Amino acid sequence: MGVVTRGFGGRRPDPDRELPPGQFLTQDFPVLSAGPTPNVDEAHWQLEIHAETGEVHRWSWEQFLALPAQDVTTDIHCVTHWTKLGTTWRGVSLDTLFEDVETSADFVMAHSYGGYTTNLPLQDLLDGQAWVAFEFEGEPLDPVHGGPARLLVPHLYFWKSAKWLHGLVMQDDDEPGFWERNGYHLYGDPWLEQRYS
Ligand SMILES: Nc1nc2c(c(=O)[nH]1)N[C@H]1C(S)=C(S)[C@@H](COP(=O)(O)O)O[C@H]1N2
Ligand SMILES: [Mo]
Question: Rounded to two decimals, what is the model's pTM?
Fold first, then answer.
C-alpha cells in the first residue's frame, strides 16, 4: 500500500511548491543527533508500547517485519530550517501497532535506544499520520538516520521523529521530552512555525 502525505502530489518534488515558513530546500539528508549513534542489534531489538494500565505490547524484529507495511512519500521539515521534499520510506503504520492497545491516555512519550525522548499527542500518531519506518529510499534505514527503525511523524518538525525507536509510553499528561525540555515547542507544527517555546 502506498501513501502520499500532504503537499506531495507529483512524481517529482516541485521546486516552486510552497514550503513551511522560514524553511529552505535541501537535496542532501543532514544527520542531526544529540549523541552518538547507538549500536542497535536487530537480534535484541524490541519495540514496546506501554499502556497506562501496565499492559505492554512487544514486537521482536521478526514479529515487527511480519506486520503489514506501507510505502510512504512525504516531505520532512527540520526545526534547523531545512526541508526535504518527496522522501520515500517503508514502515508500519502506528494504526497497526495500536490496533490491540487499549488506552484512554491522550499523550505518548517516544523513547529511543540511547535515551532520547520526545512527546506527542496520541491523536497525531493515528489515522495514517505516523509510521515506524525501517527503509529509506528503498534501502534498510542507515543507523545514522535511526536504523534499524525510527518514528516518522512528517506533519510535525522532524525532531518528533525519534530515531532508534524503542518504546512508546502512554501518559495522561503532555510531559516534555529531550528537546522540549531544552526549549523546543511542546507540539512543533512547521506550518505554524512552532519552533521554540
Ligand atoms: N534518538 C534520536 N532521535 C532523533 C534525534 C536524536 O538526537 N536522537 N534528533 C532529532 C532531530 S532534532 C532531527 S532534525 C531528526 C534528524 O534525523 P536525521 O538525522 O535522520 O536527519 O531526528 C530526530 N530524532
Ligand atoms: Mo532537528
Answer: 0.95
